[in-house]
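We read letters as residues; the fold follows as C-alpha cells. A sample entry reads:
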Amino acid sequence: MISLIHLTKRYDRLTAVDDVSLEIPAGEIFGFLGPNGAGKTTTIKMMAGILQPTDGTIIIDGKDLAEDPVGAKQVTGFIPDRGFLYEKLTGVECLQFVASLYSMDKGRMEARIKELVALFEMDEWAGDLIESYSHGMKQRIVMSAALIHEPKVIVVDEPMVGLDPKGGRLVKGLFRSLANTGVSIFMSTHTLAMAEEVCDRIGIIHEGCLIAVGTASELRQKAGAEERNFEAVFLKLTEDPQGVETG
C-alpha cells in the first residue's frame, strides 16, 4: 500500500533523509520513531507531497506521488502535528470545505460529516467558530478533515498532540479499527508507549538513516534488551546504531 524506495532529501550539504526504503502493506499501523532532527517530519512531509524528494520514489496505493500527485493524494489522509484551520469557519463549515476539495457529492458529504461529528464527540461545538476551540478541539477537526474522504492511507505526525487521555484512547481505537478495514497508517510519534501498544511494526530513523525495523519484540532482540522497557530499547538503538540491521 505504501512503498518508499531509496527516499532521500538533501539541503545543500545536509542529508535530512538518507536512502530510506520501506514497504507498508494494507492494514498495517507503522510507527516511525527517532530523536529530534532525525528526519521523521521531513519524511512525513515528502509522503504528504509538501516537500519534493531529492531522490527516490513514493508509491501510495499503486500511484507514484511524483507522476500522479492528485491520484495519490485522493487516497491519502494527512494529519499534521499542527494543522492549519480557517478560524472564521465553524467546524462543520471547515469539513464541508475539505469535502468539496475531494468533489464529494452533497449526500455523501453530509452523511460523512454526521459520522465524524459523532465519532469525535463534537456535537455540542461543531457549529461554533473554530477560533473559539481549544487546541484539542482543533486537533479533532484536523483529524476529521483528514478522514472525511475515507482514505486508504493515513499519514500522521504526532497524533496525540493536544489530546486529553479520553481523546487519545479514542484515536488509538480508531486507528486500530481503520487498520482492520485495510487502511494503512504511517505514524510518526515521540510517544513510545503508544508506538509499542498500537503499532504492528516500528521503524527507527537516526541522523536520516533507517537503522531498525520490526515488531517491538524484534527491536528488543536487535537491541539485546529483551526484558527491558521500550524506552531503553529506543535509547540503546539510537545511541549505538552501529551494526544494527534493518528489516
Remarks:
- The chain has a mean pLDDT of 91.
- Residues 165-180 form the longest helix (16 residues).
- Strands lie at 2-11, 14-24, 29-33, 55-60, 63-64, 76-79, 153-157, 184-188, 201-206, 209-214.
- The chain is about 40% helix and 25% strand.
